[in-house]
């Protein structure tokens, strides 16, 4: 059990720290530091001065804020200091009613959260270097596609409304040129990801297993590998399905609330979109899932419900092929199904 808990509230340029001791409601200190390598060293020196204890008695906790929390997470990992990145929503929901909103107040709430839920702490472990690079390239590719789509759509609408203007023709032609250039950059990013896969036998093996499933393409496979830490962060397909927002939950209370079983809106939306695209492809080209889709349609089920079921099936297939180290066999039948 840790003796001291440090809550960190991240921002782009600075981080606020709050220090509490186990079993005490009294703050031992509040500090503000730069969100930089020098600031991290100053933070650690400040904690040492306040606690007069070695780092193995600390638990540092902060909200997962992407790039803003990345530097400190890496620094503490390199120094062997326990660091816990927690969902911002999870911390917020645990706070109860709060009328004040400042960075030091948030840092204190995070420190007390870490002390209260120490047994739930999931210590930060960095992804492999290659997986981290693939993650960055996926984000870059996504930004390129969004900008390309925005340019093309705006140019089409402008041309439709103002066809005769010379400036409009210039905008349309230039937008097409930029969109074509961005398409080349998208292909270049995808090529770079393939090069990285070739450098890691474990990643390439799982990639080939995932893409053996009809419906799972390159981007789906890579995104799943990134989000699961190459299948090390989720110990079951259902947990990953919950994270993606495709597992249905009951909605009932007392005798009057009898809502439909439905998926949660707390989800990784980009992954959910990719799974939807994969499911639509699968019910077209995967004979097993196509037959399932058609059978459920004949039973009168709604198309979106069936697609969500297919999303779940694809997740279970992905976890299964990786767990068994076997490529997807379209002719496989479960022993229980054969017995029936």
Automatic annotation (TrEMBL):
Entries under Pfam families matching the protein: DEDD_Tnp_IS110, Transposase_20
Transposase IS110-like N-terminal domain residues: 6-148
Gene Ontology BP terms: DNA transposition
Every Transposase IS116/IS110/IS902 C-terminal domain range: 208-293
Superkingdom of the organism of origin: Bacteria
Cross-referenced InterPro entries: Transp_IS110-like_N, Transpos_IS110, Transposase_20
Molecular function in Gene Ontology: DNA binding; transposase activity
Protein name per its UniProtKB record: Transposase
Organism: Acetobacteroides hydrogenigenes
